[in-house]
Amino acid sequence: ETGVTQSPTHLIKTRGQQVTLRCSSQSGHNTVSWYQQALGQGPQFIFQYYREEENGRGNFPPRFSGLQFPNYSSELNVNALELDDSALYLCASSLGGADTQYFGPGTRLTVL
Amino acid sequence: SQQGEEDPQALSIQEGENATMNCSYKTSINNLQWYRQNSGRGLVHLILIRSNEREKHSGRLRVTLDTSKKSSSLLITASRAADTASYFCAPAMDSNYQLIWGAGTKLIIKP
Question: What span, in angstroms and rounded, lies between the C-alpha atoms of A54 and B63?
């Protein structure tokens, strides 16, 4: 059984640039959730995808967007990067929205 | 706004002692989950307790849930240095099943 993987591990971008983060869900899981975690804080829910459809969104602006593919892997895209976007981005897969979530190791994004 | 609030924010105990962390939330829930995070990396699931359950055990972990008080507790017995981590509760809201996270409890186990 393959766990949740994320790429890249680390990323450095400058203000105004765009970034794409990738997540491969655990085998058999059809739901992927994305979170932003600032240093010393808890995860903040960005959005969730269930079978390629967005299934809920947190309080994030439209420049945060996502996709889920037929194999249930997912992408998080952030446009017009701001300094405050610097954080650890976590994805988690599950069998359903309320079920146990299995997290990837995260992508550390630094915006300069 | 944060729906899961952990208390205390930080806890430092001697190895071998028990550690208790509390969680409060604001809305009706489907279940409540506890996670552990080491050194700012990915979170690891510990226990899921459903809204119709009152207590659940897993190894050295014991979780209680009181839906009338909208609160939960996590007890770690016979703590070990490897238990040093941040612990988060994540209530799954009944309305949309989304997990809502607090800022966590930072647990330090002193050898």
Answer: 32
A97 touches chain B (CB under 8 A): yes
Could you tell me which residues come within 8 angstroms of residue B107 by beta carbon, excluding any fewer than 6 positions away? B10, B11, B12, B13, B19, B21, B76, B79, B83, B84, B85, B86, B87
**Are residues B98 and A56, on separate chains, in Cβ contact within 8 Å?**
yes
Half-sphere exposure for A27 (CA within 13 Å, toward CB):
3
Are residues B30 and A35, on separate chains, in Cβ contact within 8 Å?
no
Residue B83: strand, helix, or coil: helix
Residue by residue, pLDDT tens for chain B (111 residues) are 445 688 899 999 999 999 999 999 998 999 999 999 998 678 999 999 999 999 999 999 999 999 999 999 999 999 999 999 999 999 998 777 788 888 999 999 999
Residue linked to tokens 């990837």 = A104
